[in-house]
Hints:
By secondary structure, this protein is an alpha+beta fold. Helix content is about 40%, strand content about 20%. The protein is built from 16 helices and 14 strands. Helix 5 (about 215-220) crosses helix 6, helix 8 (about 265-275) packs across helix 9 (about 295-300) and helix 13 (about 360-365) runs antiparallel to helix 16 (about 405-415).
Amino acid sequence: MIKAIFFCAFDIKEGPKVLHQVPADSIVPSSTSTQIPLFHFPSLSKYIIPRPEFCSRLITFCTPTHRILSYPVCLPSPSYPRNAYTFSIALVLDVLTPFASYATVTLKLASLLRTLEEQSRFLSRDTSTPNSGKIYALCEILLEDLNNYCESMIPIDDSNTLNIKLFPTYPPPPPLCPYHVPLSTVRLNSLTDPNWDLTMLGVLPHIDGINSVKQISLLADADYKLVRKAIEHLLYYGCLLLLDIFSFSAIYAPTAELASFVEDMEMQAECARYVALPVEGHAEGSKRHVIDGSQLVELYLSLKQGQNVKAFYIEHAEKMEKVDVRRFITFGVVKGFLYRVHKYAIATSQTSRRKRDPKTRVKQKKASSIAVETGTDEVDSDLVELERFLDGTHCFDEICTELMINEQELMVRLKAIGDVQIICR
Length: 425
């Protein structure tokens, strides 16, 4: 939020001088005012109206409580006193306010005022008293519009109009990996436009909460780097969430946040609507089973370390009969009361360095399900490629995605390598 906007210029007698300020007395109070200014202007005026060498660039500095964004402009011309006219338009923000979008506003304001001055001496010929006239009205409307509507359109004269919009600044998106699964939080189809990037249009139909980023790039027949950039763009604007690859061999466990789900009846009802399977004989989504919230609480509490989704589903098959198990897990992860227990493989130094003799290669060939009709060298190259992931920093999802295999096949290869420890955390 903008605390104040002010316009100042260099006076040949008084030096840097505030001519217009909104709100009134916020920068330089009048002699009759009891208001405390936002900062002490005389001590900072040399930064707001600096030497010519520092003009035509954004200057930002802070006081203990506020941040000042200024863009001083110096226009040399023999028609001005001292052969130059120096002015600055400045915004005052709270010191903790992100200022990237406001910096753009300051630059655009300074550019417009410079153009107006060069065209018609709009600033230097302004004879209105302080806090009155067109420049003051411009600052006043701008402050009110940007704070209330984040945009402003102000006609200056017959040929100039100021159009400014504050674009929100979001934090950087989380790191995106090939094994992440994007889940849309908005109706992406309603946002699309025929003029959108072709890669983006090709990616959107495959974002369904099931396909990983790597799978999406293959399904869309697009370069992975371009697909990743498109998904990062959607992540930046909050259109997506990132999930793990769902599989029945995965392990999930509840967090302390599950207590909020137990107490929140509205969240339980929301969960019941999301995870319920459609009734047989009806069109998909037209009618779904009714699930009790207490039943869902009991099921979530039954998830635990050391038990994968398959074992959980078999144990609670009767209660899960009307529940979509994938949506059941997804809801808990999105709401934050479930977390994924990842598996990591660590090979001993002896295993990773030893040379495999021909007899060992034959055993590995027989143990590997992919080596039925391949040569020993190919099997060995697959295992060598796998060994670079066995340092305990790569989860099974990452390994399977990079090698384009499933977890069952990964376990066969790990057994073929030898002494490998599996850690769940």
